[in-house]
Amino acid sequence: MTMYQPNSEQDLADLLRDADAPLAVQGGATRGVNIAGAPLSTCALNGVRLYEPGALTLVAGAGTPLPEVEVLLAAENQRLAFEPSDLRGLLGTDGIPTLGGAIATNTSGPRRIQSGAARDFLLGVRFVDGMGQIIKNGGRVMKNVTGYDLVKLMAGSHGTLGVLSEVSLKVLPSPECSGTLIWENLDWQASLAIFSAALNSPYDVTGAARLPAFGERPAQTLIRVEGFEASVSYRLSELSGHLKTIAQSAEMTMDVVRNAQLWRSVRDVEPFVGKEGDLWRSSIKPGNMPAFVAALDGEHMIDWAGGLIWSLVPKGRDVRAALNGFGGHCTLLRGAHHLLRFQPEPAPLAALSAGLRKKFDPRGILNVGLMG
């Protein structure tokens, strides 16, 4: 099958205007999504067009590799605060994650509980809709809110409303130091209590997760804080004392390498890499986390203080059945190909989503069937 890879925004517009069959839109093709249609890659729409460290602003082509962006920002001691994940190991895919792919999927890592999601840092977009029209929306600073809702709409639309060609983002300074409190072998309820108490403390927590047992390593409940070294040390000590009423004393680490490894494991769901089974990602009310995982056979990794659950379950198991009564929604990341990737929406929301797709892609050629 022909792979389309336009070299410019105008080439992309011409391609979409003349298309007469479905297209499978992709960035770095790292997420293992199988959609009917000829592949359309944005990888050639790459390169940083504007970077102003003083203004905390970055503008880049949608196909720009994420590692390239992260190296550029690190040279100025800055970062993408939404901590985008790299799921290639988890999903067994090749390619390189792209900036546009991270935005199109609204990829947001452990820091979401403090900094927000990818869409919260999106200032502006350029994209081509299903009719081949080039659309620019938003701006390069937060004050410019022209078309702000449309900018947010593109984040998480998974290429069903249009193909991103350029994104404008707010970036943030990197912290001087990161530190983590670690508890071993806490059960689900105790972990939830730790999360709740930590997030309701004044110590500005930037990560709250639970890694399952892996090899010889026991299950670990993690709380992260970031900032200036003296402040991190003080806040970790205060938090540790504050949380002793819930669980035994925690181990405290401020080691740079170990902290990076711990939170990369959470961000990229490393405990499930190379393991057999179907992989699901569930978003629920944090307070329902212990009951949800208890009702579901399998292994679970917890992020976002209990609000995000990664589940590795036996092949063919429909996790959505276990979700009944808990609220929230599940996404199938790997396996069980007879099931829809995304959870069916309630009728009113489904009608709204279909209306949006009809408006932006009236011929129905962009990632057909992916989201409904």
UniProtKB/TrEMBL annotation:
FAD-binding PCMH-type domain location: 1-174
InterPro entries given in the database record: FAD-bd_PCMH, FAD-bd_PCMH-like_sf, FAD-bd_PCMH_sub2, FAD-linked_Oxase-like_C, Oxid_FAD_bind_N
UniProt superkingdom: Bacteria
PROSITE patterns: FAD_PCMH (PS51387)
Keywords, alphabetical: FAD, Flavoprotein
GO molecular function terms noted in the UniProt entry: catalytic activity; FAD binding
Gene3D superfamilies associated with the record: 3.30.465.10
Protein's recorded name: Glycolate oxidase FAD binding subunit
Organism name: Epibacterium ulvae
Lineage, top ranks: Bacteria, Pseudomonadati, Pseudomonadota, Alphaproteobacteria, Rhodobacterales
